[in-house]
Amino acid sequence: MNGISKTLNDMTLVERSSLLDTVADALEATAEEAEGEGDARFVANSVCIANTIRGLSGELAPHNLRAAELLLEQGIMLVHQFANRAKPPGMVH
Fold it and tell me: Taking the model in full, what pTM does it have?
């Protein structure tokens, strides 16, 4: 993990696919956690982005890289926001 970061354009197809799957998996995992907390809006947003990422990963051609970058950014930010949200008093994470 100490290597230099690559852009999607610099990655191999396998690396791109792996990154997309990892972000989609993270979105689905946090959606499950949010569902347990009753946050239906977060569940819907996360599942929607995860499904869009999964749909794009099967056909990731060079002209789709910008769309993939935007989806990855949105997905990562959504997971980050969920992990760092203010928790109601008494909620243990």
Answer: 0.83
